[in-house]
Structure formats: C-alpha cells, structure tokens
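Justification of resources, computational component.

The compute hours requested in this renewal are based largely on the per-chain cost of generating structure records like the one below. Each record pairs the submitted sequence with a full structure-token output. That output is archived, and it is also reused by downstream analysis tasks.
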Amino acid sequence: MFADMHDEKSLFEIPGDAPEYIIKPFDNLYLNVLTLDEEINQLFNPTMGNGYGSGTQQLFGDRASQYINGYMVAEDGTVNLPVIGKVKVAGLNLSEAQAQVREQAEVYLKDPNIKVKVLNFKVNVTGEVKSPGLYYNYEGSLNIIDAISMANGITEFADIKNVLVIRHNENETKTYSINFSDKSVYYSDVFYLQPNDIVYIQPNRFKRTRENTNIYSLILSTISTLLVAGTVINNNFF
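The structure output for this chain reads:
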C-alpha cells in the first residue's frame, strides 16, 4: 500500500484533524460519574464494587451489557441521570458533553469525576480482510486505516486500488472508492469513517481468476461425470 510514498514526501497537515463526534438523540452513551462517596457511586453504577472503575468490565464487558447499562439519549436530546436529573447533551461533542454533565453535577456533588464515551459508533469491515466483522470505536472518531487494522489487515487477494466505503445518510446511500496504492487516501472524504459505514475490500483479479477457474473445473467435472454415467447406462441398456 501507499506505493507513491517516499521519504522526501511530507504529509504535513493531511489528513487534518479528525471530525468531532456530535451526540444525537437515541445515541447510547457510557456516562460515568464518580465521587469519593461510595454511596453516590452506587446510584450511578449499582453493581460496582469498592473502588474506582471496579465494576466497569461487569457493566460494559459485552455488547448486550453496553446496551442495557448505557444511557440512551432521549428524543429531546437529554440523558436522565440519578441525583443530577436531565442533562442536555445532543448537539455537543464528547468533551462538551462531559463539561456539561460536570457543571450540573457540581450543583449536587463534590468534585465529581465525569467520563462520557459513545457506545454505538460501529463500522462493518468486510471482504478481503483477515477478520471481517463489526468493529466498535469509543472515542468518537475512526479512520479507515485503523478500521482495517482492527480487522487484522488485508488478505493477499485484496484489491487495494479500489476499496469501497458505503455510507448511508438520512436520505441517500453513497459509495466511495479509495485507492490505497497512493496517498490520495488521506484526502478522501471518507478517510474518517462515520457510524454504520461499510468498508468493503474487493477481491483482486487473481482471486477472481482463481474462482472462475474453480467454477469452470467444477462444470467440466460435472459434465464428464454425466457423460460417463450416460455411457454406462447406454451400454447396459443395449
């Protein structure tokens, strides 16, 4: 990949800063409020043991737990937190939401420690990668190179000159083609992925040729078997 990249070529200022993830209604958030008061901590994390973060794995160790224990952003853009009440977070990035929750929490709690992460940012990486599947990102931004790395990289049959990203927006679905053999990937509109993007690594011509050869071989083998079977039947009949 990146065949046109040379030591003397500078990539300064590209691809640029990652876009901030903006929280939307119906997002599912990891929202952690911790204080020095263990009783208060139990209100936010009922299964938490003693000490900071001791129950995180239990609460968020799998997708089902994340869905159940995350805080869903309501249609009006708020999350409803114990003690603190409703906090408006839709339209904010993760840092702004963290500050907003902290500001409201400080009315009721002493020195609260706030963390906000997004739980529903996922992309589908499929095709000629070693581990196709859904991959989740909790930081609010993910580039296509990291996504492919999460799928353990490409196979020997990947067509790196025509990687597809399929993106569905509210009213349309767009398909983008990326050439990983040169640095143009860094300028692509889909270098930074969005939630629910599909990254499809197409097979190269060598794999297509091999697949076609296998199909032709199977067809010829089937025809040969039928011819032999027909000959045997005819001989037996006559």
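Confidence is low (pLDDT under 50) at residues 50-55. The two ends are 64 Å apart (CA to CA).
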